[in-house]
């Protein structure tokens, strides 16, 4: 009888173990099957903006509308690749209007209901895009490192030997901001290619991946001076960071950013709704107050601490001329980079 009880207990334990194992297996298979169920976003946007810029806009849009937005973010180079593929996204947000014009065939013409509020200079002639923000370029410096006598005054200052290897500059092949800065310097330089070559030498192969790293390098003191946008420099200065900035005395340029709807998108109405939202007075004022960004609207004032746009040293050149200059400068830069790479490989 004792042996029989032992056998019965043993069978019960074995049966319980089998049931537990089957239960665990059932849970393991059910988990991934459930996790794979994803609700597609109501709108997919691509952008080369930093999270600091696009996250508040997207979050506010989602809260006000109840719609969901997926963001595909990257560098200007990444965005160009997304334009080439022209799929899996609906709208380009806050992208250089020159890049948008380069891919003009991608965009669905759309005239915003708020067009009249936008300064005429910042309007698209064919309504292929709507302006989002305008960013003057500046030279920013670390006030703990740069003395009063060493203060930069213009583009030529970036060539000074004292700053060799200490200039924060993003790769012009990846950053439209840096490419525009090269064009600004070239427009006022009698020897354009020479300026590009001398700057490349003074950078001492210290090229950054993106414009966000310029801020980090200067704040950390690894670099003394660098090229960035006015809003970045102004926001840092206002927050009490040890930085200041100047507008190059030779003249600076504006980077105009816009938003465009991809032709043929299945989320056309949602894309229009998002575009109108980004151009609204509410959003434009939020960007001005929280990030020191200039608005493209005529009814939004200039951020505190900034000069009026008409007082900035801007060259007498339209956006088309500047765009052509950028293409020429980019070719010069690539030639110099290729030559340096060849010399490095030979050694």
Which key terms come to mind for this protein?
disordered N terminus; about 350 residues; alpha/beta; about 15% strand; D-Maltodextrin-Binding Protein, domain 2; 11 helices
Please describe what this structure looks like.
- This protein has helices at 2-35, 51-65, 76-85, 97-102, 176-187, 192-203, 211-220, 230-238, 268-279, 281-291, 319-346, and strands spanning 43-47, 69-73, 91-96, 130-142, 167-170, 207-208, 225-229, 243-246, 254-261.
- The protein has 347 residues and is an alpha/beta fold.
- The protein folds into two domains: 43-134 and 254-308, 3-Layer(aba) Sandwich (D-Maltodextrin-Binding Protein, domain 2); 136-253 and 317-342, D-Maltodextrin-Binding Protein, domain 2 (3-Layer(aba) Sandwich).
- Helix 2 links the parallel strand 1 and strand 2 (69-73).
- It is globular.
- The N and C termini lie far apart (90 Å).
Write down the Rg. 27 Å
Number of strands: 9
**CATH architecture descriptor text of the largest domain:** 3-Layer(aba) Sandwich
Report the span from N to C terminus: 90 Å
